[in-house]
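re: ur msg from earlier - yeah i can do the flavin-adenine dinucleotide complex, just paste it... oh wait u already did. ok heres what im feeding in:
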Amino acid sequence: ILLICIPQIANLCCCNDSVTTSKIQNHEMVSSLQTLALDGYLSMEDNEHAANDFGNIYHFPPLAILYPETVYDISRTIKHIYEMGSGSEFKVAARGHGHSLQGQAQANQGLVINMKSLQGKEMKVHGGEMPYVDVSGGELWINILHETLKHGLAPKSWTDYLYLTVGGTLSNAGISGQAFRHGPQINNVYQLQVVTGKGEILTCSKNQNSDLFYSGLGGLGQFGIITRARISLEPAKKMVKWIRVLYSKFSTFSTDQEYLISLENTFDYIEGFVIKNRSGLLNNWRSSFNPKDPFQVSQFNSDGKTLYCLEMAKYFNPDETEAMNHVESLLSALSYIPSTLFQSEVSFVEFLDRVHISSIKLREKGLWEVPHPWLNLLIPRSKIHHFAQEVFGKILLDSSNGPILIYPVNQSRWNSETSFVTPEEDVFYLVAFLSSAIPFSTGTHSLENILTQNKQILDFCHNAQLEIKQYLPFYSSQEEWRAHFGPRWELFAQRKSTYDPLALLAPGHRIFQKAS
Ligand code: FAD
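and the outut:
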């Protein structure tokens, strides 16, 4: 009922005898869960919100939501389902902040575990030579930022948006402009506490239960529920020099990006984005906008042309002059359009929390809760020019439907033992099409049109053999998942049978069973 049935996803609506039988079994399972002694509670009503996510395209309602008070609530519940569950279709999804795109944190007619119930419990910062913070898997990164700053410390690797949970981003990767130097968030974790698909509570790290540790990082929630994480920290600076510059040629833009990420002593954050088909930019930007404000550059018109914006940030303390001299010398080696240097100084928190401001503005205009058919790709460096030429030059003829991020990272900073798979080159690019669809629109900005465009991009990558990987991947068949993992599929499947033998967990990815 809640599923928006458009052709690409209509095959997820089904109704037959086996579904009816499993629904009865699922109701019996929920009744039996009600007999468990829990510190938290189970909710059987008003659960519609758990059938929604940021993507706002797939909607699968659960039968029940667990609001755990302790890790034991999660362990008892999963153990019970595991012991009762052989042959049943009853599935369990951990829900962090529900910012998935295609129902990945949903469990159709199953159980959703509301991880945010564990938030705030025992967030402990430890100083010393290798500082870290112990947090709950349901903690939001924004809260971790505020807590660790009280000790003059902060995590090293971030996402662009901080209202996401630790369990949610560590199940994917957690990639932002710091990943070129520190790797993604999954590379900056010392230890996890995990409840497996059998209900066991295990602590794991690179030295203890290491197979489970690496399985869980980037593991799409397939092997267990992350209930706690130990996150590596570094001394935090107070201020950020935030800079944006523009390019008209992709090759010059990417050469500069790759140059910056190759340096040992460089910016702390490096990203970039594409400005597509806006008019008047190069003529009017001086009069229309304050060139000191990097926020404004994304609003500019580009005279119908495609422009590329390189975004950089340097962290510093107010008394340091050396950092600013270094910024000058880094900028002097770049080949951006000279009149397009936008820079400002903001606090460390303002910089890291920058997307929150946009989210508030979009919410006010009713544009946050629209469908988000996002497409995130990882593209090997050797193929990025072919990709840019075809996609930015031909496929995206109209103006884009949202920001398009593009920046390179160094593969050497990614730990190859985690479940996450990357392209096999020393440098690869993250390209993120962060589209928003206008509800009930039938034109360029319609959901159907954007999905068709996404498919065109994927078909091009496939036909041109660009050897890309999807980030936050979305596939509807196991065939596609096998292709995604390539030679690592066997290990992934073997780990699934070890830690979640009944395939109870994270059904929304549709890797080991259908979502409905
Ligand atoms: P949910 O959507 O709740 O869950 C995601 C998946 O993880 C589900 O499969 C769920 O079952 C599983 N899961 C959740 N909690 C746990 C747990 N404790 N243990 C095990 N599995 C769990 N990603 C980036 O890498 N970089 C970015 O810069 C970035 N920016 C974003 C900006 C916005 C506005 C949005 C909406 C998303 C962004 N993302 C980014 C993607 C984001 O990292 C993922 O969508 C992430 O999964 C969202 O976290 P969440 O807490 O909402 O997870």
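cool cool. Confidence is low (pLDDT under 50) at residues 1-15, 279-292. ping me if u need the other ligands too
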